[in-house]
Amino acid sequence: MTEAQGRSTLREVAERAGVSIGTASAVLSDKTWVSAKARAAVRSAVDELGYRPRSSRPVTAAAAPGVSSIGFVSQISEMFVPTSPYFASVLFGAQQACARFNISTNYEVFDPAAGGLPLSVQRRQVGGLLVLSHASDRAFLRRIIDTGMPCVLLEHEVTDLPVDYVRHDDEAGAYQATTHLLDLGHTDPAPAIITGRAEVLPAQVRLAGYRRALAERGLTERPEHVRRSNFDTRTGAAAMAELLDLRQPPTAVFCANDESALGALEAVRARGLRVPEDISLIGYDDIAMAAHTVPPLTTVAADKELLGAQAVWHLLERIQQPRLSSRDTSLAVRLVHRASTAAPPTR
């Protein structure tokens, strides 16, 4: 990868070597249990990609005295489970950052509607909390903050509370994805979108980016072209089937996450259609499998590991300096053009 293309990641090293992220990390940490074959493959991938581990931020373990563990809590949801390719990368990034400071990670799920507090907060087992959620729940966060627990939010915001927010620039990413389809010639009809539920903040922001791209071209959004999913393959496939059932189906669809795009790809194939010859598909997140679909998926790359690591760095600083002003950190995203998008078919 060249410098202009952006810095290579551990996930890319793992993909090049044909191993898991955990195995690649173990090789770079000189763990003895990794096989010689895997070790050689990872070292070769590191050399080919010019991979360099991220340097630690100017915060040391001594900067947060007495902190031996931080909590990572996520809302009870199919979107946030350890088997989710997106969630797993975020959690891995947070764990790697903690390991650099000899801090452990305590992970648990929560249900804000049930009231109460996460067990790690009730038992004062952690020095701070990372909260991953797709929608704001001010009352829940207020209960946590009232205990004096420092917090950093991932992927959502509550602007009137003393917490930091770390997220990707989803409006810009959705704008890039939609503009890419428009530049290919998908203007009559304009691209459709499969986004998430209305209460999901990333879905709201990505829909806004899609709408901005259409508006700049003077195109009118068609209500029937805006479909909802749960950001998973099953509902992505169902939403794609609804679009294909329209009297004038779109020639391109922006799926607001890669798992929805994988479901959409299945739905297109089930109709005997081809991607991108009959319909172009673009995803979002650049999960590991996106590069290995048939055809490889054009998508918007979001650095999920960095999201988790950045949240840890902010949390350690907030533990050290509890009176810091709230910070809203937006991580850049970039378009990755693969083979699932092309010019519209000739009618």
What do these coordinates show?
- Helix 8 links the parallel strand 6 and strand 7 (226-228).
- This protein has 347 residues and is α/β, with parallel strands linked by helices.
- The protein has helices at residues 10-17, 21-28, 36-49, 85-100, 119-122, 138-145, 170-183, 201-216, 233-244, 258-270, 304-320; strands at residues 69-75, 104-110, 129-132, 151-154, 164-168, 192-195, 226-228, 252-255, 280-282, 299-302, 328-331, 333-336.
- It is 37% helix and 15% strand.
- The protein is built from eleven helices and twelve strands.
- It folds into three domains: 3-49, 434 Repressor (Amino-terminal Domain) (Orthogonal Bundle), CATH 1.10.260; 61-168 and 303-331, Rossmann fold (3-Layer(aba) Sandwich); 170-301, Rossmann fold, CATH 3.40.50.
- A six-stranded parallel sheet has the order 2-1-3-4-5-11. A four-stranded parallel sheet has the order 7-6-8-9, sandwiched between helices. Strands 10-12 form a two-stranded antiparallel sheet.
- The model is unreliable at 1-5 and 56-63 (pLDDT under 50).
